[in-house]
Amino acid sequence: MFRSPPTTLPISRFSIIPRAATLAAAVFACSLAMPAASAQGVPASGAAAASAASDAASAQARDFDKRQTALDARTAENEYAYGVAEHNCYSKFFVNACLGRARDKMRDARGRIHAEQLALDDERRAAHAQQRDEQDALRRARDEQEAPQRAATAASNVQAFDEKQRQHALEQAQRGAEAPQHAADQATYDAKQADYQRKLDQARLNAASDAQARALRAQHFAQKQTDAAQHKADVEARQKQAAQKAQEKQQQEQQQQEQQKRLQQEQQESD
Fold it and tell me: Exposed, middle or buried: residue 76 (CB in 10 Å: 0-12, 13-18, 19+)?
């Protein structure tokens, strides 16, 4: 039965090529940008071996990346070719048969690519295992060559620690020898402090006593002032009273004299 071909190709199949190319370019750029492992700190005899191993590993990694990029490109091309064939089959009379042949061709190519991918993965894992073994061997060799230096450093550290311990013991002994003098100095200082405290307390007592005495003197002076003012007021009152009595007496005497004069005049007039 004839089927009308679709108007558009499956977009997902044809979009594989740009994505695969981008991925391959990124992988290849990363492989070129990876720096070689630094051999700093490795003895001269091991530096050359480490550099050679690093160069070999870098070359092998570039080869793996190149082969992976090729497999990715073949996968994308296979998918694209199947998409084109599938699209073209819809314009033929025997559509199903055409689709089956296209699918079989795609699966056959996919199987070959998958087999090569498995082989590449096995080689990559083996290379990584070999690199780990070589790195372990180089590390062990470096450790063996650096063992005397580490032993010398450890011995120097032990010697420095022992010297610090001896210096600490010497300082302890010196402090112990100086302890009596420190105790005597402390006793003298404590005695001076106690004497100063006694003088300070006595000065405070004297100041309190003087303040109390001044307060009493001030109170006594104020009382004397009050008494003097009262005495003055009493004297003035008595003087005023005496003057008033004298004035009254004088007035009485004048009245008596005037009365006697009148009596005398009256007596003269009667004679």
Answer: buried
